[in-house]
């Protein structure tokens, strides 16, 4: 998708995306799936960084993304911040702004914590190392 | 994303996607953003086809997608069906199944109807012709 | 709220509510909180009945309810059916119809499974007996 | 429901609720429907106050509420703040805190703007006067 990570900690994850033709639907505005996708990505990375501290990993449960203003071009910035970081689940909220700083989309992702060694789609879950993405 | 339309009418839109490396996150399962993206796509096409009958177009408002089972490979099929098709807004629900027919994700998209000539992000909305996608 | 259970199994839960003054907001239509509330109730009962089979209980995580048609009076019927019943989480969908059978609202609830004896808000979770509500 | 308005402007609406037996489900914690209901209420009041400035009224479209921490007792405070206040739709976010100031639930409501005189469930929509609730 062309999303570039800017900062990633267990407290906040930010990324940027330069809008191009592949991000637009037929009216020429950014496709809703792009917003939902970048929201999912930054929230998942953030939750994963937090989970690692407790030797857990995470898997996404639900993504709810609202489209607030139509955008045609320029750079989108997305930042995930925690609403709740528990041992069973986490909830992260991500805000997408356009090049002028206007909030153009907002999303929320709930993730389930998995203990190391849990089965997921037929394989054991490993806990990602600090340097892996 | 590699999504192929299978059938598109104002009553139902279906599409397929063959899972590949670009659809997987770091655990090797399909990324939540892929599900949200294909849900958004089929619901938007469907709502647009319905809106055209009333000389309207649509723009997405909210996407809510739930991840039900983790998938590693194979073909995903997604089908959008209407929950409500009104003159002001529409709500479509899309179900994603894996190659075995199991429901692996489900999403819902609310879309706003726009009259022809409405302004959207600084441009006039045109109504898409029957043969355009 | 005046909701009456009609049928409750681990596969489907139905309930009814006769619209009265306390359910209406200032325009005279049923308040959105009523739909979200009855969706939450039937999904929670259903998930709890399923969880009990595995000596688990459940707690709600997220409620997403869409309002499809405004209703002023008459009987509302709500039915919850499972989208996914797993050992870690469950997702139930509930449909609300008015007296004419029209779908007027639809909601989805994700619930987390808790093992017997888990701590929840400072107390141990007990597993509800078959005859308790 | 026992919700008391504390402050209501077109920029922010706050309310409080003292948890009692009617707000609890069978585990003794506040029912998810209560959170969704108070989120719906404060967001609707806020959006309505904003809409009135443009001779519009509003009707709720979707309510998405996340439950973050279980609560057994005490006072809940809920505050709605705008994510987007447009001429076609509005999106408000409401945060629920417990007596200790901890965020225990968070919700988002999308509302549709209606021009004065629009038909809604068979009746004309009037625009509420400044002193009406």
Fraction of residues in H or I helices of chain A: 10-25%
Number of strands of chain A: 8
Write the CATH architecture name of chain A: Roll
Major interchain interface with per-chain residue totals: A-B, 41 and 41 residues
Quaternary structure of the protein: homotetramer
CATH class division of chain A? Alpha Beta
Shape descriptor of chain A: elongated
Please, what is the average pLDDT of chain A?
A: 91
What's the total helix number of chain A?
1
User: Could you please say which CATH topology of chain A applies here?
Assistant: Thiol Ester Dehydrase, Chain A
Strand order across the biggest sheet of chain A? Answer: 1-2-4-5-6-3
Order of helices and strands of chain A: EEHEEEEEE
Strand portion of chain A: over 45%
Between the first and last Cα atoms of chain A, what is the distance in angstroms? 16 Å
Number of domains of chain A: 1
Question: How big is the Rg of chain A?
Answer: 15 Å
Judged by helices, strands and strand pairing, the structural class of chain A is alpha+beta
Low-confidence stretches of chain A: none
Biggest beta sheet attributes of chain A? 6 strands, antiparallel
